[in-house]
Q: What sequence folds into this?
């Protein structure tokens, strides 16, 4: 073999090796590395089953913004202490931001002020004054309460209005309560509102039973949270007597079960929010905070909608309540 | 070249000779240096290749000896399936229990494929790319599990299938593939036994019109689901073996869904007025759908309905007297098995140490009959 050929074969081998290194390894050309942002979301319930729409929005944003989402539920519903512990745990485990839907907003605000946070905190659903909060996607629950109160005003003033709640300290119940009271007390002759704490389905059943026996008294029910609303709707579903005696049941929420109750006519009207957008925007805001997009606290308030059975098939609400993946 | 140089030296005068010899010496040295350098480069390239290969292998086999957190992806074929949603809740409970008992943080990411295999495939790919430690898959199309297994194998992420059993060939594609389910034959035999026992106790409770034959209709699950075929076959066979004089009026596929079953049953009730005495359903949701149709049509004559799964809604149906009986699969045990396999594999442990497998890959959850009191 002449030297030229040797040189050619040698060169060819080198080119082959170079091409191999180029195509199969990261030694020469480095892949553009996309930074994945770990973000944790802490909610107030024990299961993520009722957060379907919120998660859809979050998942969409997570794909768009290269976020590794960790959706965390609690060992016990509304356990504010655990939520605060989880914030610390997630931040020390490397979460670049934490999104929190506080179980008890007031307690959360106090607890957060005492904490030193390593990563930004974004609040979901509430307006928290805590200085640690970098951004928030909030809902004006007083406005939601006013919408419910306004709807309840279609009933005669003689009927007592029972306000059902798991407790005013939980979630957004107090704000809704204030909104309803404000609306129902607007006229000269105010409605008779009775606040009832419901801790179990049995509590709810006995409350509704009491409107029928021993003395029949037509009533109006407004649930201040989705769990109370679901309990009341379930009790009413089982009995036509209750359905006749309870003039109307109103509440807040948008889970599939609640929408089915609305569709069946057991719930008269629901206040709902665009949960998909809420989820999407919370991730977008968290990413913006991580990447230094905001110089000061950024807050966005979502709109509340009052929806009746007739409006359930309205394309605008349909898109909002049944978002497609 | 070398020969030419030697020839040239031989014919040169002595003065030039010394100079040329020195040049030749330098040239020789240059050649030698180049040769050494060439070998050096060659060895370096080989070394580089070997190094990168070893590095890649090392990365593959590297296992975290002490895990402080595990990430498990759960993939559901349809999140609104009643049975699947009970398993989902039980899995969440299992994860929390495990976290409290071991102190190992569990990241559980639950995805709903909404009956779309392509969606599920991309969900699986995403979790693999995010570095999840184990995958629990309730496959949309059980015959398409090979793609998921191959993707998981390439990333060395173990897979636990549940409820929708992949074909045997796919199950043996990789040793890190497991299946958790309820034995369909056992469910069907128990369902049949509910009818047989009731008939033996009081024939007229099943043969309602007392004509010596029990007219039944059959509600079947998806035709592509392994359990659907087995449940149908063995339930009817068990009832026949129990000497109940069965006579089939009709049957149809309601795809495990309450609404579809309700529509089908209404159609049959109109087609066979007063004739249907027994409704055998492959699951509780369809059984409740049949009860809905009976209620909707205002039929007051007794029609017995039997289901399978023992979902909370099914049990409620029993309590309200809508169903004659159901077969309950222990959802806590079911979810415990899925979670234990996934968590053990994620931590590099052998799940066989805590669970008993059939054929090293299959775990069958226990079942029991539930009757209307």
A:
């Amino acid at each position: 073999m002449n030297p030229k050929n040797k040189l050619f074969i040698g060169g060819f081998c080198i080119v082959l090796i170079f091409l191999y290194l180029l195509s199969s390894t990261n030694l020469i050309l480095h892949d553009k590395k996309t930074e994945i942002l770990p973000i944790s979301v802490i909610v107030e319930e024990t299961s993520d089953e009722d957060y379907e729409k919120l998660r859809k929005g979050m998942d969409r944003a997570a794909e768009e913004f290269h976020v590794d989402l960790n959706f965390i539920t609690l060992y016990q519903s509304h356990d504010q202490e655990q939520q605060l512990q989880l914030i610390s745990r997630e931040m020390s485990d490397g979460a670049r931001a934490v999104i929190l839907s506080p179980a008890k907003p007031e307690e959360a605000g106090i607890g957060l002020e005492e904490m030193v946070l390593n990563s930004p905190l974004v609040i979901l659903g509430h307006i928290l004054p805590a200085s640690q909060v970098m951004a928030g996607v909030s809902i004006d629950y007083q406005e939601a309460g006013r919408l419910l109160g306004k709807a309840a005003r279609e009933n005669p003033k003689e009927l007592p209005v029972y306000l059902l709640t798991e407790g005013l300290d939980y979630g957004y119940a107090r704000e809704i309560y204030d909104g309803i009271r404000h609306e129902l007390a607007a006229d000269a002759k105010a409605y008779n509102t009775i606040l009832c704490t419901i801790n179990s389905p049995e509590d709810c059943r006995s409350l509704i039973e009491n409107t029928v026996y021993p003395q029949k008294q037509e009533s109006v029910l407004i649930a201040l949270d989705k769990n109370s609303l679901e309990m009341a709707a379930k009790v009413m579903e089982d009995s036509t007597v209750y359905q006749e005696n309870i003039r109307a049941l109103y509440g807040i929420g948008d889970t599939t079960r609640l929408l089915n109750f609305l569709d069946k006519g057991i719930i008269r009207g629901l206040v709902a929010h665009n949960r998909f957008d809420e989820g999407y925007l919370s991730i977008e805001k968290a990413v913006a905070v991580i990447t230094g997009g905001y110089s000061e606290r950024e807050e966005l308030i979502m709109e509340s909608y009052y929806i009746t059975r007739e409006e359930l098939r309205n394309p605008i609400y349909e898109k909002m309540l049944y978002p497609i993946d | 070249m070398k020969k030419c140089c030697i020839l040239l030296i031989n014919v040169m005068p002595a003065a030039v000779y010394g100079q040329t010899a020195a040049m030749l010496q330098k040239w020789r040295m240059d050649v030698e240096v180049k040769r050494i350098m060439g070998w050096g480069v060659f060895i370096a390239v080989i070394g580089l290749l070997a190094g990168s290969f070893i590095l890649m292998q090392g990365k593959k086999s590297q296992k975290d000896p002490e895990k402080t957190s595990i990430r498990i992806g759960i993939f559901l074929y349809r999140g609104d399936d009643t049975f699947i949603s009970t398993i989902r809740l039980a899995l969440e409970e299992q994860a929390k229990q495990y976290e409290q008992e071991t102190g190992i943080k569990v990241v559980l990411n639950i995805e709903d494929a909404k009956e779309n295999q392509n969606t599920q495939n991309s969900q699986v790919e995403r979790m693999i790319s995010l570095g999840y430690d184990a995958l629990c898959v309730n496959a949309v199309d059980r015959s398409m599990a090979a793609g998921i297994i191959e993707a998981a194998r390439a990333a060395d992420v173990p897979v636990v299938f549940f409820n929708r059993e992949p074909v045997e060939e796919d199950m043996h594609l990789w040793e890190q593939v497991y299946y958790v389910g309820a034995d369909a034959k056992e469910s069907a035999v128990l369902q049949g036994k509910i009818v047989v026992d009731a008939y033996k106790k009081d024939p007229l409770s099943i043969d309602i019109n007392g004509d010596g034959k029990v007219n039944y209709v059959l509600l079947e699950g998806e035709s592509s689901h392994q359990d659907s075929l087995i449940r149908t076959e063995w339930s009817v066979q068990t009832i026949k073996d129990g000497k109940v004089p069965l006579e089939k009026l009709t049957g149809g596929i309601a795809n495990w869904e309450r609404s579809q079953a309700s529509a089908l049953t209404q159609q049959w009730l109109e087609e066979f007025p007063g004739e249907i005495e027994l409704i055998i359903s492959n699951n509780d949701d369809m059984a409740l759908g049949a009860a809905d149709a009976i209620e909707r049509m205002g039929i007051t004559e007794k029609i017995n309905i039997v289901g399978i799964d023992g979902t909370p809604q099914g049990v409620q149906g029993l309590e309200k007297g809508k169903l004659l009986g159901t077969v309950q699969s222990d959802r806590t045990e079911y979810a415990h098995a899925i979670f234990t396999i996934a968590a053990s594999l994620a931590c590099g442990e052998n799940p066989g140490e805590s669970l008993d497998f059939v054929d090293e890959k299959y775990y069958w959850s226990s079942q029991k009959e539930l009757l209307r009191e």
Q: What stands out?
A: The longest helix of chain A spans residues 3-24. Chain A touches chain B through 23 residues (CB under 8 Å).
